[in-house]
Amino acid sequence: xxxxxNLLQLINSMSPAEKRHFKLTCSIMPGDKRYLxxxxxxxxxxxxxAGILCRQLNLTTKQLADDKHxxxxxxxxNLRSNVPLETESDILYSDFEDARHLLRRGLYAYxxxxxxxxxxxxxxxxxxxxxxxxxxLLHTCYNHLQNYARMHTIGExxxxxxMLSAERNEMRWITGMAADYTxxxxxxxxxxxxxxxxxxxxxxxxxxxxxxxxxxxxTVKHRYYSTRSARExxxxxxxxxxKYYQKHPDIKRNFPQIYILMFTRRVNxxxxxxxxxxxxxxxxxxxxxxKGPAIKISNAxxxxxxxxxxxxxxxxxxxxxxxxxxLDVAIKMSYARRPSYQFMYLICQASxxxxxxxxxxxxx
Length: 364
Hints:
The protein has 364 residues and is mainly α.
């Protein structure tokens, strides 16, 4: 199979609105716009042929390669500038780029002030990668400002950050191994038992330092009980996790993704013990939570969890034998974006119609 051209794929992935925005931006830029001719030529094409392009645009092979490289950079820059900042992480990284720009201009005090404000927010959400970059930026600023006392404390913060990162990375490894054991359930039980003897898993969740590591700990516990088909243990684990998050309400704001994952585990746990009424209530509550102002997740994530909640509502209605409710939800959600959900909704719709004594409609 011939390798597809990356630039052509990028252009074809753009929406009409993105293409209009790109051309509008280019129209106000000075200088020769040879790269724009290349864009117009590639736009709408499905096949890439360098030889034909060179003849069409009267370019040498090297000129075409240079134009492609430049066009790619301009396109990506334009697309980045046009992306809405949906999550706290998006906003933090955007603000970090502002601080870096201030540093490059030699505005060290301004860059340091901006960086310190970002660092406070980054700590709350445990954005470790960003924090390393921020501490490096601040160290450079304070070196120019000759603030050696703050430079010393930055060194101590880097040491503490390394410890937090090490705990999170170790828990990530444990979670990854747990996922492997969950997929390969048969013949892996003893191996999973050994993994649960890891020193971090022997601790209580509250004894871990970071919230991200703690979230991984809860995930491993749920996967362990799932592989053992320990339904009551799954439910107890979800209750304990919920109690922990109730004691720490800031998690909902600082770690919305973790909070939502906890909610999905509560729904799954209710399903495991066949408490369909609780499952129905939690699925409905989940839909309300993801639409609330406290939960800042991307639109794609909102859609994903909304579809998930609808699926679990269907299973709950089915368990409660409320066939008309199953039918109503299935019809409403049969246009879901995810093909796997579309298929499930149609199957549920057909099953409900059969149970409602409407076999002809079920066949359709």
